[in-house]
Automatic annotation (TrEMBL):
InterPro entries found in the cross-reference section: DUF4145
Species: Terrabacter aeriphilus
UniProt xrefs under Pfam families: DUF4145
Entry superkingdom: Bacteria
Name of the featured protein: DUF4145 domain-containing protein
Domain DUF4145 residues, every copy: 85-173
Length: 201
């Protein structure tokens, strides 16, 4: 992120300061703009200050908020878009929505392998029976299902925490990695190896 102005806009409010600054994302695939506001007990415009939010500042608010943006190049487009949407929900603190979308991603992934049995629980079982997922990932997928079901069926008396939502999405990513990324990477490596063997005779 690159700050657009050398000196941020600082306003004094009683015994504290409110500062605003605009940034542009350095990623050429993004290039979007963000605004940050932060609250301090000192004047960030002092000449010896960086003019940017510091780790010790008590409140820092980005708009839009920073978003973890995993890339899913080997995942079918409709599933990849939904997975990215789950992370957007997470970034905006919409943790219930993030869990609901993660559940949908897992069910859509199963369908992409021709698994059409009724219900997501049966689909996860079928993924395991086809040896597409195994071990701890099976139990983890069921946890995503349960959090997603809670969101879908209104069992939300106890709020989903930021840690729980992040774990749910990390499991979602792990499942997509297992189902799509690892096999695709293996195929690319095998093709590259075969090409090298063909060239050397």
């Amino acid at each position: 992120m690159t700050q657009l102005m050398k000196h941020p806009d600082v306003k004094r409010s009683f015994q504290s300061y409110v500062t605003d600054a605009a940034y542009k994302c350095d990623n050429p695939k993004c290039g979007r703009y963000s605004v940050v506001s932060w609250y301090t007990d000192y004047d960030p415009s002092d000449h010896y200050r960086s003019g940017e939010p510091e780790e010790y500042d008590r409140t820092v608010i980005w708009s839009p908020p920073p978003i973890k943006r995993p890339e899913y190049p080997d995942v079918p487009d409709h599933i990849a878009k939904a997975a990215s949407e789950a992370w957007v929900c997470f970034a905006h603190s919409s943790y219930i929505a993030a869990c609901a979308v993660a559940r949908s991603v897992i069910e859509a992934a199963a369908k992409s392998f021709g698994i059409t049995v009724r219900g997501i629980e049966a689909k996860i079982v079928a993924l395991n029976e086809k040896n597409l997922i195994w071990g701890d990932l099976v139990a983890s997928a069921h946890l995503v299902r349960q959090f997603g079901n809670d969101a879908a069926h209104g069992d939300i008396v106890e709020p989903v925490t930021v840690g729980e939502a992040e774990d749910v999405l990390d499991i979602m990513d792990a499942l997509l990695h297992q189902l799509f990324s690892t096999p695709a990477r293996a195929l690319r490596l095998e093709a590259s190896r075969q090409q090298r063997r063909d060239q050397t005779g």
